[in-house]
Specification:
The protein has 353 residues and is mainly alpha-helical. Helix content is 68%, strand content 0%. The protein starts with a helix and ends with a helix.
Length: 353
Amino acid sequence: MKRIEEIYWLRFYGCLAVFGFHFLDRLNQYVDNVYVDLARIPTVLGTPIFIFISIFLFSARYGNHPPSGFLVKRLRYVMVPYVVYGLIYSLTKYVNLRREGVPVDLVDTLVEYLIYAGWHGYFLIIAMQFYAFYWLYSRYDLERWLPPGPWLMLGSVISMAYWGLARLFDFEPPGYLHWIAPLGWIYLFFLAMLVVRYYPQLVPQRLHEFPWLERLARPQLLLAYVAWIALLTWFGWLEHSSKETWVVPLFVLFTLFTVTRLRSVRATPLVKFVNRYSFGIYLAHPMFFAMVDFAHEFVPFSLPVYSLLLIVVGMAGSIAFNWAANRIPGGAVLFGKTLYVPKDRHRTATQAH
């Protein structure tokens, strides 16, 4: 199998989507209008993209035979950064609240972040659950009972129902516990397994062999659905996050379009550069956003300058921090591993990832 170029594009997009979502959150404190809401639409796919990529690459690389120590290695490179960054963000919140005179208990803050996953690293808990599910799915040949095609449809219904009911009944347990429940993301697992199964045939020339996939991968369908979402957004009828019912079909349509149309589009040097530091950017950028906010308290910036500083400091700071962390012993485990992105175009997909 040749190197999977579209994964570079997907990871690049996912990284910018997560960054953009949190950037718009900051901007929304000063500008709250429909145009900011419209800008949020493409950013809601960030978290689902990272989950999808992880499952896809493991299945493409290992098939039904994950190697010995698979889960232990995942725990080390996923859960250690979760604890480290969780401590950083929880302690920062505690100090800031005390500085503002808000009575807050340190233990409660630590529990909120580390036990209740009440920070953006909740993605790591979701990912770890699906790594374990992939291991079980492969080791015990669960595909016999859970075939990815039918279960993509059923999983999508389950995820849509979960998010819809959570919003309908205003279900909000402590932290982000309702966000890390696998029911809300189960469709991503079966979408990834389905794409892996049919990957060699998922090219425009052969899509006619799978009529239902061909219909779902049509750009006209994706554009029509996005237009409908934009219309509902314009009238203020939608909430915007990756945890919404309408995001499920959007992600399915977007992913099937992407993996069938970007097969031969080679990733640019910029795309590969962002891929290399994507994990570090995901984890660290709010830390650098907070630095800009801290400076903003003492030296008020105009909105354009503030926005530019968020983008530049957030992105450059995250990349520099991840680069430096990976050059000290144990830094990759503690602060997120820099991805190896090969330059040799003839390496295989599994070698590249």
